[in-house]
Every structure is written in C-alpha cells, then in structure tokens.
Specification:
- The complex is a heterodimer.
- Chain A is mostly beta strands.
- Chain A is built from no helices and ten strands.
- In chain A, the strands form two sheets. In chain A, strands 2, 4, 5, 8, 9 and 10 form a six-stranded mixed beta sheet that branches. Chain A has a four-stranded antiparallel beta sheet with strand order 1-3-7-6, with no helix packed on it.
- By secondary structure, chain B is an all-beta fold.
- Chain B is built from no helices and nine strands.
- Chain B is globular and about 40 Å long.
- The model of chain B has no long low-confidence stretch (mean pLDDT 90).
Chain lengths: 118, 115
Amino acid sequence: GAGVSQSPSNKVTEKGKDVELRCDPISGHTALYWYRQRLGQGLEFLIYFQGNSAPDKSGLPSDRFSAERTGESVSTLTIQRTQQEDSAVYLCASSLGGRNRGLSSPLHFGNGTRLTVT
Amino acid sequence: DAKTTQPPSMDCAEGRAANLPCNHSTISGNEYVYWYRQIHSQGPQYIIHGLKNNETNEMASLIITEDRKSSTLILPHATLRDTAVYYCIVRVAKTWSGNTGKLIFGQGTTLQVKP
C-alpha cells in the first residue's frame, strides 16, 4: 500500500520567507511525528500528533515553527521568517500507536522535504 | 528514554553476516528495542523490534541478551544495498500523559558493505 507521502520533495526559499511543508500519513495511522535532520546529523524530534489529543510540541526549536493536523489525516509544518539554520531535511512519520495503548507499532517514515534557505 | 551506544562505523564483506551491536544498559522493563536504517537521501526504514525475546523477520534477526542491556542486529547475508546508517533505539512500550513514545535517534552505526 501507499507509504507516507511528503511534499514538496525539495524547497528553496529566501531568508525571511515563510514555508509550508505537507505530510500525508498512511491511511488509518492515528499517530503522526515530525522530525528534522540537518546535514550529517541525526534526527531531531519536533512534534507529535495523536488523534484529537493535544500535540506534543516539546521539540519545536522556536515559536517560528508550528504544525497542524486535521483529524487523523494531513499535517502541515509551517516555518515563519526562515533562517539559514532552518536548512535541513524535514521528515514525517506515522504509526498505529497511540496514548494509553501498547507502542509495539513501528513508525513509518516518508522521504522528507529538503529545505534550503538562501 | 534510555540512551543507546553504538560503534560509529563497521565494515562487512558482501555475502557475509553483518552483526551490529548496541548497548542500552539503562533500559527499563517496559521499553522496546527498535532498529531502523537510513540509506542516503531516504527516510529511515523500519527493520525490526523486540521487547525480551529474540525476533526474526525477512530483513534481519534481533538478539537481545537475557539482562536486556545489549542487543545485536544480524543481517544474515549482507549485500551492497545494505550499506546504510543503522540506528538502535529504545522506546517505551506504553504511553501515559506526557510521554509520546517518540523515537530518540542517536548517531547510529555506518555500515559499509564491501564487494
């Protein structure tokens, strides 16, 4: 079946502009995660959504970053007033797991959006 | 979440078994061991996970020591396409308020499969 889909695959923007990144999770997956990966670095957790529960925003690096998710479908990650240090690959993942349930369901990742801020 | 320790890099000859070690000495009884790999320019790919018992699937085997403080991922017949960064991660088995069960990635092991 279809995996996690992210768009665009590449985005080049000028410093100071706003960008919006999109994630389409696997159908039926209730949990959705955003990660960031800078060049040559590991993955950094940004935010987590589970159904209608309040999202876990503990990984967002600044108030320029925000994300939304409508129900259990599409999510968008927005970066306002982009800076050069925001250049990275932004990865989205989804899973069947959720709060107060067993977490034996693995996360499945998309191939990310490569953001370059010039 | 418990932290893991992996060697930064390993080599393996094509066709031979690749054995990737991971230490997780502070793992809790309710935490799974997960393995992912990341091939250049792609998102991480799920490989396998386990709690206490050894596990095997079509990709790999996972051997967890009896005290659960370490594990080994085994790729039985490595190919050039298995060249990637391999991540060992521990993750809570159940959530409660304030814990999302998110995966915390370290630096992983870069496995180079050589012809």
